[in-house]
Amino acid sequence: MANARRTSLGNSLRYRGREGMWTWILHRLTGLGILLFLLIHVVETATVIYFPDVYDKFLVGYKTGLFRFAELVIFFSVLYHAVNGTRIIVQDFRPLVMQRQRQLVWASAVVVVLAMLPVTWMMMAPMFGLAQEPGVERHRQRCAEFPDAPACVEDGHSAGTSIAAGEVSL
């Protein structure tokens, strides 16, 4: 055991793989995150059939800030995984591109950040009262046209007051 090497998390993270190492780690983490989301989503969606009351509780939880942030993380994971996967495919089919791997990594990062900016605004701004929830205006128009539609009726009464306040239960 004289030759045994002691490694710690700090030593492991000091590996000088640069962008390649970090994209590899993030690609695996986002892939596992997407898989975890899909498993949870299948189980949660199945509750609508077998346990409707539990599903209704899930729906209440979806309106929280924590869930909104989790949705943003899921969107980032899918976006990053897709963009980085495309970069990997390009590098696999065009070996000469490997000479520009670092530039491709940074270009992928720019694409992800630029795509995340408007999505982050759309998902987070309504939580802070900086913007209206997407689809609220269309929902109001549809409820004005079809006031007895299931999405426009709450507890047997027309949902006109809550819709006017900007709260939509879809």
In short:
The chain is mainly alpha-helical.
Notes on the protein architecture:
Helices cover 68% and strands 2% of the residues. It has helices at 9-13, 18-50, 52-61, 65-93, 101-124, 136-145, 160-164, and strands spanning 153-154, 157-158. The chain has a two-stranded antiparallel sheet. The protein starts with 8 loop residues before the first helix and ends in a 6-residue tail after the last helix.
CATH topology of the largest domain: 3 helical TM bundles of succinate and fumarate reductases
CATH homology superfamily of the largest domain: Fumarate reductase/succinate dehydrogenase, transmembrane subunit
Shape: elongated
Stretches where pLDDT is under 50 for at least 5 consecutive residues are: 155-166
Task: Describe the largest sheet.
Answer: 2 strands, antiparallel
Task: State the secondary-structure class.
Answer: mainly alpha
Strand content: under 5%
CATH top level label of the largest domain: Mainly Alpha
